[in-house]
Amino acid sequence: MLWLRGTLLALATSIILVGPAAAQNYPTRPIRIIVPFAPAGSTDAVVRILAQQLSENLGESVVVENRPGGAATIGMNLVAQAAPDGYTLGAANISFGANPSLLGKVPYDPEKDFVAVSYVAQVPLVLAVHPSLPVRSVKELIALVKAKPNALNYSSAGYGSGSHLSMELFCYLTGIKMINVPFNGGGPQVAATLGGQTPVLFATIPSSLQFFQSGQLIPLAISTAKRDSSLPNVPTVAEAGVPDYEMGDWVGIVAPKGTPDAIVARLNQEIDKALALPDVKDKIEKIGTQVVGGPPEVLANHIHRELEKWNKVVTTMGIRVN
């Protein structure tokens, strides 16, 4: 029996040590980050900036692989089913937290089938109006819409997009009602508001900044908890009169559940190092996003809050994406 005990002890010790040992040697081959969207867009752009720096930091290629479709569920399902060895990661964004409620069913559990690695960045949106609309503040917009429920259209970049969800949360918290006119992406969405077809929108800063500067669109408020440096005089929605409002698209890196803690910690450390570099931070901020960073728990807690928030909003507002 002594030999059996010795064998079991050796086996247990080897299992305990495999995590740290794997992290010390990791990586030994290219890493892929699956982006569940077509190229371009905030998530793809942020991940490509990060991947380039991680390749230098880790000494192995970090490759971005676009797998669009299924409202981002196809790509994220590939991540969930991948080997939990640190060589397949996924880029999660607002759809990751909203899809279970919006779609009714997704082929994975966002919390049980993934492990959080890093909350990379958040993407502020701007509540704005066409100059012809007689409002110049959030309170004036709320008053106008309350006086005429469902009389005002707003444009979005599509059902389930950040711009759509931003407005649904705004309506949920203020008790107002507007009609969503979805477009295929942020460009057409902004164009519709510029043309006066849909006088209200939540838009990303890169897609709309030039129009704020020219006066073709009037910015009313920033969606995130803090103001954006590109529009320092524009208040947040919370500052402008909706105190519980905080919203933004976001970019997080996740891995399949079961990925060794030591590898997750190594990836998190290297991502934080990359985000701290002035050049990387500057590149990310130039595309209208704000660097976040921090330990994996920051992203895990954020995902949990997103799932709870969108379940409440989607259920109350009766939103459903087919």
Count of the domains = 2
Query: Which percent band covers the strand fraction?
Result: 15-25%
The CATH superfamily of the largest domain bears the name Bordetella uptake gene, domain 1
If classified by CATH, what would the architecture of the largest domain be?
3-Layer(aba) Sandwich
Strand order of the largest sheet: 2-1-3-10-4-11
User: Helix share of residues?
Assistant: 40-55%
**Main sheet specs:** 6 strands, mixed
Radius of gyration of CA atoms, rounded to a whole number = 22 Å
Total DSSP helices: 11
Globally, the shape reads globular
User: Secondary-structure element order, as H and E?
Assistant: HEHEHEHEEHEHEHEHEEHHEH
Please report the first level of CATH classification, the CATH class of the largest domain: Alpha Beta
Q: Which topology of the largest domain does CATH recognise?
A: D-Maltodextrin-Binding Protein, domain 2
Q: What's the total count of β strands?
A: 11
Which assembly state applies to the chains in this document? Answer: single chain
Mean pLDDT: 91
Class derived from helix and strand content: alpha/beta
Report how far the terminal alpha carbons are from each other.
61 Å
Unreliable spans are: 1-18
